[in-house]
Design a protein that fits this description.
binds 6-O-phosphono-beta-D-fructofuranose, 16 helices, 20% strand, six-stranded parallel beta sheet, 16 strands, alpha/beta
Amino acid sequence: MKRLVIVSNRVPVPKEGLRPGGLAVVLHDLLALQGGMWFGWNGTTSVDAETTPPQIQHAGGVEYATIGLTPAEHKHYYTGFSNSTLWPLMHSLPEFIHFERRELSTYWSVNERFCENLLPLLRDDDTIWIHDYHLLPLAAQLRRKGVNMPIGFFLHTPFPAPDMLAIAPDGGTFLRDMLCADLLGFQTSDDTANFIFAAQRTAGARLVAPDTLSFEGHTVRVGSFAVEIDPDAFARTAAEAVEAPELKQLRSSLAGRKLIFGVDRMDPTKGLCDRLAGYDRLLESYPIWQRNVTFLQIAAESRVDVPSYRALRQELEGMIGKLNAQRGQADWTPLRFLTRGSARRVVAGYMRQAQIGYITPLRDGMNLVAKEYVAAQDPDDPGVLILSRMAGAARQLEAALLVNPLDHDDLADALNRALGMPKAERRERWQACRTHLEGCTALGWGQAFLRTLEATVAR
Ligand code: F6P
């Protein structure tokens, strides 16, 4: 079997006794199954990072090759171009885009450095799988250095419509660089269609089959591969967590009130301010829920050096204080907002406890929290998922209450409807959502991508 080489911006090297969560586990498991190496940034900065060779570690049958970033690279490549320009651009949120030309040049040069450091570690029988928006130029850079092994690329974020791409500095170059891979994977068919359209219009690629583009004599396959979770395992974790001390404490503090629950990174794409405003509107428009409901939102701090993330934190702090001060009562705090991350097991328990999963990103590639909320429910007495139409997961979880994340009345109406929804309707909606998760596994997502890559290069 070919060796798998995964390349991503951040590499979560497992530490003694600690296992990373979510997608990191899936990629680790894929590597452990197939044998392989994970290459990328180790999460640290140091002034001599540019001249330090990759550090090689082994854990759980996987080889990890990691490099550091210099403080300037971190500022311009990670905080700057990747997360201040590309991230909001990919999410079609121009109001959060900040662009500095010198950050773009550092973005290219860090990708070059990834390429230079990776090259000596590659073997002829490797299959290379590059991940996400930090590394758009990498496939092209590897090809220019003569790498001719199969290269797949998967974008975890949405792919914007071509007119949004027009505001990307050098958008055409990014498209041409991506077209050097053999397989390009996206989360949804809309993202795939956006890419196909942009590649033809902006990069001059030709569509030679519904899923194949031809560009400068090279053909590249494109397709959607929705990221999945392991619903059965997550359901077990959630059911077990219900008896954990953290859950007992939560239940006793709720004193019989219904629980609305959300969990996200603190990120401008997650729609947190509008989400709070929607909850505030519920309490204003439907006063019957005052004192009868508690909203618990976990928003773990993330990318704290990015100015729009700092501004978000400030705005949220103002909103949280105002909402609790204006709507709260001596013995009732309507909103509990936590910025510390919680253990995955405990989060699964919160999901099972919550009558409502309130997940309203402004835009999201997929949103695995929505799938996890569905998996965590008690089949006999499930909660209701309120989900933004703008999340990739809404393509699959159509039986959720789908909302416009910017429309506070829509959010309030959905919350009111969910809080009062009869059990029969809750079960019917939950069953329809659960059916979409049936038979899917996170590992299956990765294997489907790799199978398609293998078939593509074999044609
Ligand atoms: O959703 C994109 C993503 O890169 C995820 O893969 C990752 O878990 C998350 O953002 C956190 O990103 P960062 O590495 O910037 O902390």
